[in-house]
Design goal:
Elements lengths: L8 H12 L3 H15 L3 H13 L6 H33 L1 H7 L9 H13 L11
Helix pairs in contact: 1-2, 3-4, 4-5, 4-6
């Protein structure tokens, strides 16, 4: 039987802490944990992203950009058609999540999913990169 991490608030706090460190090798560890444990586990990846969005603490834009380029982009790339409505709904009500969404790059995201992302992000007033690039 496979053993997985439980995606809860403590996991999210530890993940965010790993992304804050100046030690590049340690920061990469945060990616590896997510990649290894949540690969193709879309519901758990979505849970992680929602918990990050709803966490009641300040999170630096650089950390949000890292999450956008990692877990959020992975979710959109791997299961975008399944999750795009939930993603946009959360982005409309949660500014942190909306900001993260502006940090996603095209990658291999399905064209119809990417069109929805771009449409939302072009209207958002506080993108990660100051000016939305797509």
């Amino acid at each position: 039987m496979d053993q997985y991490f439980e995606i809860d608030i403590e996991f999210v706090k530890s993940y965010l802490q790993s992304l804050k460190r100046d030690d590049r090798e340690y920061e990469d560890y945060g990616f590896y944990v997510i990649d290894l444990d949540l690969d193709h586990r879309w519901d758990d990846l979505w849970k992680l992203l929602k918990l990050v969005a709803e966490l009641e603490c300040d999170i630096e834009s650089s950390i949000l950009a890292t999450i956008a380029a990692g877990p959020l982009e992975d979710l959109l790339d791997g299961a975008g058609l399944q999750f795009i409505d939930r993603i946009v709904a959360l982005a409309k009500t949660n500014r942190r999540f909306a900001k993260m969404l502006t940090g996603v790059w095209r990658s291999d995201i399905e064209p119809e999913v990417w069109a929805v992302v771009v449409d939302f992000c072009r209207k958002y007033d506080d993108p990660i990169d100051v000016t939305y690039q797509f």
